[in-house]
Amino acid sequence: MILTRRRTTILFFIIGLVVAMLAGWIAVPAALYESIEQPLGFSHVVHSSDDVGMECDDCHHLTSEGGFAGIPQIAVCVDCHEEAIGTSKDELKLVEEYIKPGREIPWLVYARQPDNAFFPHVRHTKLAKIPCKQCHGDHGQTKTLRPLKRNRFTGYSRDIWGHDFSGITTSPPWSMKMSDCVDCHRKRGVRDSCLACHK
Amino acid sequence: MGFSVKRRDFLGLVGGGAVGAALSPAPWKGLDDIAIWTQNWSWKPRLPRGPVEVAFTHCGLCHAGCGLKVRSVGGSPVGVHGVPGHPLSAGFVCALGLAGRYLSYHPSRIVEPTIVGADGQRRGIPFKAAVRQLGDWLDDTRSGGGHGSVAILDNRPGRMRSLAYRKWLGALDGAHIKGLREDTPINRLRAMLDGPAPELGLDIARARTVLSFGAPVLEGLGSGEAGSQLRGRSDSDKPYIVQIETRPSRTARGADLWLRIAPGTETVLALGLANVLVSEGLYDKEIIAQQALDLDGPGGYRELVARFSPKKVSRITGIDAATIKKVARRFASGPAVVIPGVDPGGGPLSAEAQTAAFSLSLLNGDVGRPGGVVARRASGTTQLPREGRLADTVELADVPDGSIRLLIADGVAGGFAIPTSLLERKLNPSEGRVVSLAPFERSALHGADLVIPSTTPFESIDEAGVPIDAPVDSMGLTVPSMRAPDYSVDSLRVLSMVAKSSVVPTITELLRGRSDRIHAGERGSVFDPSKGESVPLTEFKTNGDLWRALTSGGLWTDASATFSCPPFRLMGANAAIRDRLHRALEQPSTADGWAHEITLMPFGWRDASGDGPLPPVMAKLFRETRLRLDSRFATICPKTAGDLGFVEGDKASIKTSLGSITVEVVLDPAVVDGVVHVAVGPSTEAFGDASRGKGDQPLDLPSCENDACWRVIPAKMLEVVS
Amino acid sequence: MTKTTPQKRYGMVIDIDRCDGCGACMVACSLENNVSVVPPEAGIHRGLTWIRVYSVTNEKEYPHSDTAYLPVSCQHCGNETPCVGVCPQSAVDVDPKNGIVSQIPERCMGCRYCMVACPYHARYFNWWDPVWPEGTEHLLNPGVTPRMRGVVEKCNFCHGRHHAAQERAASEGRSEIEPNEYQTACAEACPNGAITFGDLADKDSEVAKLAAGPESFQLLKTLGTGPKVYYLTQRGWVRDMAAKTPLPLDGQPDD
Fold first, then answer.
1. Nearest-CA neighbor of B94 among C157, C28, C183, C36?
2. In this predicted model, what pLDDT tens digit does every residue of A135-180 receive, in sequence order?
3. Which residue of B has its CA nearest to C40?
4. What are the residue ranges spanned by the domains of chain C?
5. Considering the entire predicted model, what is its pTM?
């Protein structure tokens, strides 16, 4: 078969197209996000099981000022884990590296918004009665902690910009951009100025 | 059949790539990320994260002892606020207190012990070696020196820590020297009383008139001076404030009446006011008849003041006779408070001026009356048991020249600058050594032979001060809100390591001891900052309960005490003083041999005074606006400028026999002709971004010949040709 | 049932006769809002301070000399807000719920039209990267994000405190804050009680009463910008000067 000039050009066009699309859809996302493991394994399922019987707000509570206390401090862990419970690697690491020296565990936060965003958890959970999982997903049902995908360029978590790299089907819990906030506010008829959510 | 890649193919590849890329999200994501990156520079400081914890403490940056509410994140204080309803500070904190937490990171913080070697170079040494060196010097001094050859300069005498110093010094026959502070003059009043007197406070809240000789009454900063008692009160409820001051200070501008007095003539004015009180019979005749020991008789006070007629005084002080009479009559119309002020940079008034001023209080019957001078500590419940010998506390001015062989400077911030030459004069010229236990380099002590860094007030537990205007005693603690760095060490620990004969208690033991004695005394009440209310001390069942309240930022305040005025001497029947004062009336003293062209009056800002370091944010007041002028500027009036040939913005050199400083001329029509005002600090270095240099501070200029008074310095002002 | 949100108009009344020029408001503001310290070469013209205390004198000799201190922040103009219209980036808006004029640094591109438009010199440009001394970043107020170089910033009535007050109210189940829960840092820090902050729309509030009083006036009132910051003074010369002429930067022009 003889390739005509025209066909050759089309072939090259298609090669370029495919390579660029592969790069754009697969290679770039893979290269853009670094995957960082959490410092310690943790199972929400085990802690919230009937055996242990912990409630979500035993660790993730609001402070008396209304602020979100977020990830618990080591003092909460000490209540039960002062001595190792069992012999798993993570358990020993918890006791030896964090509890005994009194160091805080440097947990990585999937949903960390940039400094200029003000998100009052209490207004959303208490006043608007939005369940946690609407934004955080079924995080409370996880057995292991997935690695944090962090944008090498901006430093943002992939949970913020969105796991769908195309950016088309974005909504919490897999995307927490400003547009997602605005969408929800619009739906609920909340209209605010910039400073309502920016600090 | 051939296969060759032509230009068209390459273009096809590129075109395909472009379309492919456009059909992938990568470029759009790239644009988005760039936008995010430009909106949040990655080198922009990151904010602290975590739950906010609230704790209460007291400010230890000056002796005013303001209550603080501290918000912390992860063990770091991220916000400092006043405590509403606080008995001493009434909810306010000055600029320095608000930003004080930044001082712990100040570039002038000393991070290791240093010593000046034989070559004159300062170098770091290990802590143990520094303590050993101090011990060796102590041994040298004890073998060669007499009384007072070891001395501690204590910027906040009267604390439990000071008692420990005095005990340590007592065993060494040493001297406990008071640093300068606002209440230094009030001890002059105590000395005028015949017999032992309690600690005294000023009851400004109930005074009808405040007669302030240059005190920064309306600075509204810290609660030193009259600040706290005047806050939050309506204008009609405030005392009438008469400010007697040469410089157009903020207090002068804001006072009800500003008497712009000629430099250094406060004594004459006080005697002039006394003249009106005595000649018009406006004094408290009952008290004077019963208690005054030196009113009448030869050389007595009546004779002394008789010659200070308003007319004559007017000529010397520049204040017209009618105003002098008006002020005297206003003063005598009810309880009044007299404050002979100590300027944070310009220092105290002369001893004579202080005595003359307090004579007015005694004449008016204000000592022991509400709205005047009240007893602050009527019983000994808060004192340490006086076992063992305690070294006497002396004023710096009263220390004999050349007597100190080893001077240990306590690290506490005093807020009052001391001229370099004054300290140097007190040291033994051949073997006087200075050891500084301060957390920062301080210019008056920057020549310290040995420096052992201590903690800053936000890092260590200590007593907060009792302001001069507090009518009752109190105890509040500086509860640490930051962790002290490993290189810092408490001054008492250093002393305990070199103590040979006495046991030095820790600061916590001392404070707990005082707390327990207060509890046993069953007097006063305790303020709970978290609730904003006070409860009687008797509601604290155990001494541990009180200690817990104090270490949570609570404040104990004593019950008010009554005190009746004991016999007193007004100026003392001293012929030499009388003759000197009378001479001052004929010919005001000016020159000390130096050709007198202009009078330099250094001054300090109440919260940014002297030679202490300042938090960087204070640059807003000194550098980013000209709200306050620092030591680079000299203020003169347009007439003086015209006479000397200066215009605004000129560079000038101010010279005395000891040196010179270069300044920029600023004009202010409110300044007295022939006077130049230069702020003592902060130097640009104080914000941490310029190199330091000796000789750039006005306090290096005065020679302090006469009893440590350096408010009025004869000087020359010359043009600097650039 | 429709939920009606009461319309607030936050404003401030500053009693000039109580101000002694101590500058505690400037320092408190800078600490509250993480306003960085600019390098020494900035001088007074490129300084960064959301509230600037101007000192003005009547230029007379003692005993007639008089000095007044005027703390000037963003005046939160309620009428034809000059900075809003000129911003090509929509980085400035007026909150319809409370009248606070905002400045969003992330949107700002640094053209400084707003600074030209502002008759009160209340807007400041970041000529340098925000820098805090080493080790002090963890002392910053977590409620306010630091701005980057190249953008304009200004007073927003301590909006971080508004956020905090809202959070506190929400934790008690309230969607609206009580008047005593929200106070600016300058008003809190003023040792002389010269600054009163509150809701001008609430006729019973202290601030509304003071603003309506006979001694109150607005800076450059004739421009018709409707500032929500009012001033009080009994001194005629201060009122005449401040109401008519723009305030001079204190001191001489620097290099």
1. C28
2. 888 888 889 999 999 998 888 888 888 787 777 767 788 888 888 8
3. B623
4. 10-244
5. 0.91
The per-residue pLDDT for range B452-477, each reduced to its tens digit, is 999 988 999 999 888 777 788 899 99
**Which has the closest alpha carbon to B259: B247, B276, B271, B245?**
B245
Q: Nearest chain C residue to A193 by CA: give it.
A: C95
What dihedral angle (degrees, nearest 10) is formed by the CA atoms of B272, B274, B278, B280? 60
CATH fold for domain C10-244: Alpha-Beta Plaits (3.30.70)
Candidates B51, B56, B55, B47; CA nearest to B74 is B51
| Cα A182 to Cα B634: distance, rounded to the nearest angstrom | 57
Residue at B59: amino acid letter: C
For domain B591-719, the CATH architecture is Beta Barrel (2.40)
Sign, CA dihedral A55-A58-A62-A64, equals positive
Q: Which residues of chain B neighbour A70 with C-beta distances below 8 Å? A: 49-51
Separation between Cα atoms, residue B491 and residue B454, nearest integer Å: 7
Q: What is the ipTM of this complex?
A: 0.92
Secondary-structure breakdown of chain C: helix, strand, coil percentages, each rounded to the nearest 5? 25, 15, 60
The DSSP letter of residue B48 is P
CA distance C124 to C225: 19
Using CA atoms, how far apart are residues A51 and A53, in angstroms rounded to an integer? 6
The CA distance from A170 to the nearest CA of chain C, in Å, is: 23
The CATH fold of domain B186-375: Dimethylsulfoxide Reductase; domain 2 (3.40.228)
| C152-153 and C124-125 beta bridge pairing | antiparallel
> Which positions in chain C touch A126 (Cβ < 8 Å)?
170-171, 173
- Is the bond preceding residue A106 a cis peptide, omega within 30 degrees? no
Contact of C43 with C33, CB cutoff 8 Å: no
Contacting chains of C (3 CB pairs or more, <8 Å) are: A, B
Q: Which residue of A has its CA nearest to B20?
A: A17
* d(C-alpha B218, C-alpha B214), whole Å: 11
CB B24 to CB A15 under 8 A? no
Domain boundaries of chain B, sorted by first residue:
7-39, 186-375, 591-719
Q: Who among C31, C53, C60 is closest to B99 (CB)?
A: C31
Calculate the dihedral angle through the C-alpha atoms of B265, B266, B272, B278, rounding to the nearest 10 degrees. -150
